[in-house]
Amino acid sequence: MQNYTARYHCINNCPGAYSLDAIIYHCPTCGDLLEVRHDLEALKQTSATAWKEIFARRYKSTTWPDDSGIWGKKEWVNPHVANENIVSLGEGATHLFRANRFGKWIGLENLWIKQCGNSHSGSFKDLGMTVLVSQVKQMIANGANIRAVVCASTGDTSASLAAYCAAANIPAVVLLPKNKISAAQLIQPIANGALTLALDTDFDGCMAIVKELAKRPDIYLANSMNSLRLEGQKTISIEITQQLGWQIPDWVIVPGGNLGNISAIGRGFLMLRDLGLIDRLPRLVCAQAEKANPLYESYQTGFREFHPKRAEPTAASAIQIGHPVSVKKAIAMLQEFTGIVEQTNEDELANAAALGDKAGLFNCPHTGVALAALLKLVERGEIKRSERVVVISTANGLKFPEFKIRYHQEQLNEVISRYKNAPVEIPASLEKVMETIASRQTM
């Protein structure tokens, strides 16, 4: 088998390369973030056609570890983990939903929703967490003393980390902003046995403490400041391309909070291009909630300036982040992909999510942010009717029941529920049932 390798490198190209077994998150020279770089020359020894055939053969396989959509692409993700140390919960290979009805309503002929939330813990975070926790298990097998894996979270990262650590028998510690995540998200790390700490602060406050914890040599960081996470998340791009018959969409729209996911998706497309599987790149759109929009504000200056801010409460709680860790990576990707940053307010995101639901989806509020951004770009004519568009759905809507219930009860702040569908209470009478059905059919 070909000897594939990957190493950490500084995003600013400072000298030095570091083993994936090293507990290191920042460049020792400049202090900036690292990224994982693969030996592309070794990967190029296998032709683009052969890679397509390999990925097609492994896709939704029943053979370990190829039954994971991530580990079926192991050579491109983390070739250093032995198969016996892979911690997989069947992540990846998620559905690319052909949103014909929704597309017709908004004037698009080719619209897909990549359902990344149809995963074990209910969010795209599983795609990166399987890589990170597998690496930790490999390091422990190699003799490393790691007491626990820790993260700050707005809900989904903690749920994913807790599940994978429980499966691997590795202690997990999660720091959450008190009373700022959904009950469905809170119960997940609790149920999976993680030490769950609810801090009286926001995500950025939790992250500040986690950064200090991560300075300890026996604590391993699970936030996207650790670039291993992004290696799993970049497979979203590979899957989309494969599911479209190795054709590239014209646009990919991604909700953005801590900005690791849009960075990862860009990396995936660049790797596809560099290895000859595609010959062009899509345009990327980062969609932010208006109440947590530092990247949007930077975009308005042509990215000449970036100012962190205190994020305000938003229904899109998972992206309620004012000081994103991966901002430099995200800006670099958006510039490479001629990208756009758009923002949406609470009314826009809630109604976009509800309109998508009426077409058969069940959207989390963050997907609502991406759908609302899509609507704006279509209305402005930036996205054309015939262009192929993929919207990244980041989490399962079942994790946000309060958001759904309050929308249809018209109880969301700053939202006019244009597509509300409250239950109709009537007597237990066949006649009344038939009357109600008839009245609904004439609406």
Explain the overall architecture.
The protein is built from 17 helices and twelve strands. With 443 residues, the chain is of the alpha/beta class. The protein has a domain at 96-122 and 230-408: Rossmann fold. The chain has a six-stranded mixed β-sheet with strand order 3-4-12-9-10-11, sandwiched between helices. Helix 14 (346-358) crosses helix 15 (365-379). The N and C termini lie far apart (64 Å). The model has no long low-confidence stretch (mean pLDDT 95).
In brief, what are we looking at here?
β9 (251-255), α11 (260-274) and β10 (283-289) form a beta-alpha-beta unit.
Furnish the topology, listing elements before pairings.
Elements: E1 6-10, E2 34-38, H1 40-43, H2 48-58, H3 74-77, E3 96-98, H4 100-106, E4 110-115, H5 125-141, E5 148-152, H6 156-168, E6 172-177, H7 183-191, E7 195-199, H8 203-213, E8 219-221, H9 228-233, H10 235-243, E9 251-255, H11 260-274, E10 283-289, H12 294-299, H13 327-336, E11 340-344, H14 346-358, H15 365-379, E12 388-393, H16 401-408, H17 430-441
Parallel strand pairs: 4-12, 5-6, 5-8, 6-7, 9-10, 9-12, 10-11
Antiparallel strand pairs: 1-2, 3-4
